[in-house]
Input
Amino acid sequence: MITVLSSPRALLTLLAVALLAGCATTGTRPDAKATAKPAAATYAKVDWKALPAVSDTDLLAGFSAWRSSCTRLKNDAVWAGPCATAATVPDQDPAAIRQFLQRDLEVYALRAGGHQADGLITGYYEPIYPGSLTRTASATVPVYGTPEDLVVVQLDSLYPELKGKRLRGRLDGKVLKPYDDAGTIASKGSKAPVLAWLTDPMDLQLLQIQGSGRVRLADGTQVRLAYAEQNGHPYRAIGRWLVDQGELKKEDVTMDAIRAWAKAHPARVPELLRSNPSYVFFVRSADSPEGPRGSLNVPLTAGYSVAVDRSVVPLGSLLWLSTTRPDGSPVVRPVAAQDTGGAIAGEVRADLYWGSGDAAGKLAGDMKQKGNLWMLWPKGTPLPN
Output
């Protein structure tokens, strides 16, 4: 069971813990640490003509993905009105969609440092890994649910400016101490239910990085796992550790390269995994053909949902994305801001969800592209602050 503390005494007790464990935002994927909104974030108002052209196919798909967010935004101060109007727009009418967008929304180019238009666009996906619901000779890596001794401290009840920020730890008497890091959990276990068993510790690490995934059982059926909680330690990229160790060059870091290194150096895999102290706990969710649910709690749409830095782009926002695939082919389309992630920080920054399985994983793992973002924001509504 998760305990939520919000009293002033609890907060004072946790002051030292905050310095050690840091804050983490909630979401479907592990967050590195709390980040204040960048002071240099700029929303530069531009004309609709400044947007790169998109095909009708991409317009329809992107609009549909964004409109699915409206199930969670019916009472939102910013989006309730546009969502109500969007519900009346015909699904398969590109002209009607363009008319709605240009009548009800205005365009703001996202800029870093007040002028930098180019940013980083990466990708993520829903992995499918072999495993079992019981421990077997080959499936020995546990996937944990939320520990019974994990305490979550919600800060925004007293400090609204810390909305979405939480501290996590474990009670030792009357003192809340940082929860175990990933290395400790891997070696000593956790007071948590085991939801499934995987065959490869690298699969667990990558499942935690993606924040959701499926376990393929021996009979061919699949179990879906979704993000439930996190241990409160900052996320540190294992690819960066490999670069720091001189094992890989920065430009060569991909998911495939990391897996290849792990396969070639099995004795050092525990050391690699300990370099990331963050640990994600999961919950089983109903299997369905829909995508996993993001931080907005709506199913993600392959190719049209993105994870963003919510201190810059509020969840539920409609964005216009211009980037490329790793092979250089263009990706220009409207996308829905429906998720967050620990490595997704900055003004011109997005993580594009590519779907489930190996093909999506290959695309997501190789994607580190230059890109541009525009935010479509309701007319007459104050910008995020």
Observations:
- Confidence is low (pLDDT under 50) at residues 1-27, 31-39.
